[in-house]
Amino acid sequence: MIQTQGLCYQYRNGPRLDFPDIIVPQGAVLLLSGPSGCGKSTWLALVAGLVAPAAGSLCVAGQPLGALKSIAADAWRARAIGFLPQKLYLSSALNVYQNLAMAQWAAGQVEDAARIFAALQSLGVDALAQRRPGQLSGGQAQRVALARAVLLQPQVILADEPTASLDDAAAADAVGLLLDTAKAQSATLVIATHDARVAALIPPDADGQIGFQPLCLLRSQL
Ligand code: ADP
Ligand code: MG
């Protein structure tokens, strides 16, 4: 579940962004659309607790953000949020397996090889466990990054421009993987994108279990 109220972010030497109030029920899918520069990545950073709002409140996965401080916030974020950033930030010095192990260490957990392989297998990349990120195709690297994002079974999955620079087939594949993974874990999924193709790839769910809410962020400058 994600709930925001009166959320506003102020860049130092940059724009002030005012965001509409949003409620995303647990397990729902939110498509965060809108042109480049409207504030999608900023909104994701706020929801992930990576930056603090200038005003407003937000509650993510049952946690009112702002109530936690540094170490507790880091541990909470590592467990509750699965972030698939636009730039994947896989460590080039580590192999695929070690990149996932690092996510467990970051959350204060002991390395769990069985769980790491299960996550890699669910995304079809377990055979690549010993490869370095530099030895992966773009699509493979994205699957590895998604496996890492969902390794700790987060309640919220945030994906920033997951179809950027992908052809139609690969874009459909990427969105399908996100939807399947979120559904398998009953996680709330937010896909932020300016890619007009993505809306067509998210089917309105017949059972109504997956909500679909197009959203254009509003931007106002001081
Ligand atoms: P989107 O993800 O929708 O493309 P962003 O959240 O990246 O939008 O950016 C929103 C606005 O904030 C844009 O006008 C952008 O130029 C501005 N912005 C982003 N990052 C910074 C920064 N570090 N400093 C100042 N302004 C920034
Ligand atoms: Mg962005």
What does this structure look like?
This protein is an alpha/beta fold and 222 residues long. The protein has a single domain, classed as Rossmann fold (3-Layer(aba) Sandwich). The protein is built from seven helices and ten strands. Strand 5 and strand 6 (63-64) form a beta hairpin. Helix 4 (113-122) crosses helix 5 (138-150). It starts with a strand and ends in a 6-residue tail after the last strand.
In brief:
By secondary structure, the protein is of the alpha/beta class.
In CATH's first tier, which class applies?
A: Alpha Beta
Structural class: alpha/beta
Q: Write down how many β-strands occur, each being a DSSP E stretch of 2 or more residues.
A: 10
CATH superfamily: P-loop containing nucleotide triphosphate hydrolases
- Quick one: biggest sheet? 5 strands, antiparallel
**Unreliable stretches covering 5 or more consecutive residues:** 206-222
Count of the separate structural domains: 1
Q: What general outline do the C-alpha atoms trace?
A: globular
End-to-end Cα distance, whole Å, is 31 Å
